[in-house]
Amino acid sequence: MKGCAMKAATAVMLPVLLLTSPTFATETEQFIYSTGGGAQAIVGLLLVALFGLLIAEVCHKTLAAAAVVGTMLLISAATPMKIMDFASAIRAVDWNVIFLLGSMMAIVSILVETRVFDWLNGRMVRWARGRPSALANIIIAATALLSAFADNVTTVLFLAPVVSKAAKSLRLSVWALAMPMVMAANIGGTATLIGDPPNVIVGVASGLSFMDFIFFLAVPIIVMVVALCFLAAFWYRDDLSSAHASEAVPERVELRDPNVLAWTLCMVGLTFLGFFTHSLTQLPVGVIAFAGAALAMLGRHAILRRQLGAKRADHVFAHSFEHGIEWLTLGFFIFLFMVISAAEHTGLIASAAAWLNDVVETVSTSLGLGLRAKLLMAGLLILVFSAIVSAVVDNIPYTIAAVTIVRVLVSGFATELEETGMDGSEVQLMSNVLWWSLALGACLGGNGTLIGASANVTTVGLLEKDGHHMPFIEFLKFGVPVTAMTVLIAAVYLTCYIYIGPVRTNVIGAAALALLAALAIVRYIVRRPQRNMSMASAE
């Protein structure tokens, strides 16, 4: 089914791209890129081949991307089609993204060694007090919060074992807790610049800061998390109602290397302070993250050197640096940037952007839409298309390809908004809606299918080792409704963003959420004595 869809999309898109492609060449130093329809067709087919390899999983994703880069270099060397220059491709790698991801991986690896995540997981199980519905909501909230500040895969790696043990103790289907957990991981990661790889790519490409992501995405993401709690409670109501609480007390987890933990948490705090003040200091987020990671590793090395000796401290550093950072993932990013540089230099990206812009213009003219309606239509088109594509293929390569297209559209709409007399800051806020559309669609679409996000595959793989099988179709039954619900919420948010105003929409949304939180707290306080009396009478 996926292969047919890919072929159909290629058959429809390729002729359009070829017809709109200019036949000329661009020169980068001594290398002259081919920019005709033939060169763009070759690059397009290689991109489709890369996506096909990623979907079929016939080899590791890094190997697939490297093979495509090698093929492009060989074609450029052996044929008249000049589609990749090695020097230009290396310069096209966004090292800001690479250093940001690698540095955050290093910091998380240090925290893993201190067992702070295991400790937090144990506390989470205790807070639920054996109540299945409360435990499910705690898991959703904790996963969403942790995923906003750590990699989604890292989050589910820590939470999946806890979910498995909790489900076993409650004699509950593990998927009643695990499926909402993995959905929350992908939703929560959408809220911040570093929460999900597509956000890192969008943030670096657009110049949006860490605080921009929190201010403009936190409100809709919190609404989605709350909606997920209600949907999960309804969807798994039979499982949750039939669960049986266990009197067994969860195993107490002892923290390891408290001095290392204290130092690392201080560095994490300083790193996030750097993220928050990024717009003032003008320091790249990659530099801030790298400085935080370097100081965290240096401090840990000094502490362990004093406690264990120089040789042992060096061994710990080498092991952590080698295994704590996912080098294959970083290599995958590097090769993808190189592939996308070929698509950009040959004019394929510009042709795709021109085609999309023509679609927006044609529909807007035929329907008589105003500028705001036209901007909303473009945003919703990007949102829905990104969600559909990200549900089928890895959202990382898609986002890397899409940012260049969105950049062209943002520039075009900014020009049109300026012509209406709008001031510069308002123009930027309004045109940024296309970046938010891409970030929301690319991240939320990953919940649609089992292969839509790395966190999905990781969770299913971990639980299948414990004997809990999740068929592809069963994943769709819950994943598709969650994706549809969150994309609908995102669409409503984007509509309010354009017609009510970006700042006003978020202020009103934050006030409404604060009111709901206050009402929930009051309700909990009022009902707590009644719940304690009923528990006492049951005993």
Automatic annotation (TrEMBL):
Transmembrane segments: 41-74, 95-114, 134-160, 172-194, 214-236, 260-277, 283-304, 325-355, 375-393, 435-463, 475-500, 506-526
Intracellular or extracellular location(s): Membrane
Full protein name: Citrate transporter-like domain-containing protein
Keywords from the UniProt entry: Membrane, Plasmid, Signal, Transmembrane, Transmembrane helix, Transport
PANTHER family the UniProt entry points to: P PROTEIN
InterPro entries: Cit_transptr-like_dom, Diverse_Ion_Transporter
Limits of the Citrate transporter-like domain: 53-441
Native organism taxonomy: Bacteria, Pseudomonadati, Pseudomonadota, Alphaproteobacteria, Rhodospirillales
GO biological process: transmembrane transport
Organism field: Azospirillum humicireducens
Entry GO CC: membrane
UniProt membrane topology term: Multi-pass membrane protein
